[in-house]
Automatic annotation (TrEMBL):
Keywords: Membrane, Transmembrane, Transmembrane helix. This is Glutamate synthase domain-containing protein 2. Residues 154-475 form the Glutamate synthase domain. GO terms for biological process: glutamate biosynthetic process. Belongs to the glutamate synthase family. Gene3D superfamilies: Aldolase class I.
Amino acid sequence: MRNTILAVFIIATVSFGVLTYFFLNGTTVSFLTISFFLTCIAIYDAFIQKKHSLLRAFPVVARLRWVFEEEREKIQQYFIEDDLSGTPINREKRSLVYQRAKTEIETVPFGTQHNVYAKGYEFIKHSLFPTDHHHIAGDRVVFGSDKCAQKYNASIINISAMSFGSLSKNAVMALNQGAKMGGFAHNTGEGGISSYHLQGGDLIFQVGTGYFGAGKTVDGKRVFDDEIFKQNAIRPEVKMIEIKFSQGAKPGHGGILPAKKNTEEIAKIRSVDPFTRVDSPPGHSAFSSFEGMISFLQKVRDLSGGKPVGIKFCVGNNEEIEEMIKAFAEANNYPDFIAVDGGEGGTGSAPIEFTNYVGTPLLEGLSFVNKTLLKYNLKDKIKIIASGKAIDAFDVVKFLALGADAIGMARSFMLSLGCIQARECNLDTCPVGVATQDEDLVEALVVEYKNVRVKNYHDKTIGAVKELVSAMGKNSIKEIKATDVFRRNKGGEITSLDKIYYSEEVLIS
Ligand SMILES: Cc1cc2nc3c(=O)[nH]c(=O)nc-3n(C[C@H](O)[C@H](O)[C@H](O)COP(=O)(O)O)c2cc1C
Ligand code: SF4
């Protein structure tokens, strides 16, 4: 094949050479130049370069494959996917976020595109006597037990952890300003607190295993430091502290900051070397037992001046989680909240096996944590924040039904900033300036426009939750129960979520 391709280019070059000789004009010269250029590339591909077998066999032509491969995601999005396909977030849901963020029309014509008779179809049942959605209560939740001097009255929807590093400074500023405008909280992510987080919005200060903003490097190892932590934790913007054990996209691995995104500025905030890949350790060095964990949580609470302290994880080993909750009950000392992240959770960068095959999906993880808190009489003391692809109001209702008190959203807020799901967050080439440190690309995201969109998306989603609750004939979001949400099982019957997740007898598949 390569000889044929080479022959075609050579014949074309010779032919255009002859034509140029006899009829010299702009067109013949252009064709001669192009064919000569392609012939040179073909010779290089076929004989000189040795790395790519495909190019040696199909000189020049094989390059097209790379172009298509590179643009595959966009071609798929623009020309192939329908409203219900597209992963991880389908077009229908992405469009809804864009519409809510821009306060554009949110209605759809003609009827649902979902197959309501398919296995897995979910819905809520409405009442003959809907309430007035303008008067639905329960969109705030108070975090903090009697051990907290500074309780926090939070929205039921907040921005889940995403650090400056994974996101650009403009994205962080827009999120924080949006949170301020809408009266909800912005989780810093495990990268520490930067000036971009300090735009006036409420912060949940996340402390990961790398202790960025809460520790230092000693003998090459990241360790927690009381003073460094305290300086950040007592900031008035910080309303709660979250100690991260794992996130659903890479449980048991620890955070990854790709070298390209670890700029001088970010390295300074994290006190690490710039332009090196930064891997947070998989586990905490500050404690190694449940007793140690409980003392650490209390220390952190004290150092912060009595702010609510929580832990975040994706459920792994159920027995281990139960043992931990039992230890909380026995010590009568516990975190103020548990943030449960689902295996379907998002990330800026993760190893593929961890993303695809490690960690319990949210609905099972959430219901297990809820059941275990009920079993040890801690449900009214420890709040649950659930995260894992919550995009629309139905997702919110479903998670609340399974026991969540509040919802963390990461990717939907990225979409509200203009993320087009190009999925290049780990490459530093994010085309819309959300997940990159490239200065030119960051400039594409104009904070003054996007901050309002963040607020709009939050407010409109809360409004939509209220409308669903009023359709159910309830007066408060707090009245939502697992018996209110239904799913069609594999036999075609309809089962409520309480039977699926809270009764051992009913299995759906
Ligand atoms: C770009 C990006 C960065 C993230 N960074 C962190 C982080 O620093 N700490 C953390 O606990 N989770 C992190 N997460 C996970 C989210 O906080 C959240 O738990 C997960 O994406 C599920 O929420 P979602 O489905 O609404 O995106 C990150 C997610 C994304 C998309
Ligand atoms: S547009 Fe692509 S690269 Fe940018 S944040 Fe969204 S998914 Fe990541």
